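Exercise 7. Predict the joint structure of the components listed below.
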Amino acid sequence: NAGVTQTPKFQVLKTGQSMTLQCAQDMNHEYMSWYRQDPGMGLRLIHYSVGAGITDQGEVPNGYNVSRSTTEDFPLRLLSAAPSQTSVYFCASTRDRVSYEQYFGPGTRLTVT
Amino acid sequence: DQQVKQNSPSLSVQEGRISILNCDYTNSMFDYFLWYKKYPAEGPTFLISISSIKDKNEDGRFTVFLNKSAKHLSLHIVPSQPGDSAVYFCAARAYNNDMRFGAGTRLTVKP
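Solution:
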């Protein structure tokens, strides 16, 4: 099992550009989520999904879109990047709502200039 | 609006001694609390959790204590080892799937 994988590891964008951060898991987990980590802020939930076809907003959803067409994949889209979106992004998966334990990917470090 | 707070950004402990990491929360709707450990350039890894109906959970060298009346939890590591040096995040989950994390405490265990 590869667990949770994220691509790319690093990315530099110019303001206004769009891109998609990829996340995949091979554990057949129902629940997936995206977080951003900023200095002194801990991890903040952006969007989450409780299953294929179902997504919902977290604490800081503005500027990001998600979709969940398969159980395995949960991409995060930045439609028009802004410097405030410079952060480290983590994808996580959980077996189901009862499990609570999350498995995190290695992260994507995004810089928007 | 930080609902989960870790007021100590860093903690330094001698190998073999006890490490105590603290966490406070404000939302009484949280039903589950978790601790994660994070090494540089890696994602957080789950360490230990506790349900809001319990006041203690133990797993080897790691014990989490929950004081609901004070809205406070703590992670005890005994004995501390150099490999425990990492950033520790406290997290809390509400019934509506809302997960909130603290800002983290960097633990350094000196040999």
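Discussion. Chain B has no helices and eleven strands.
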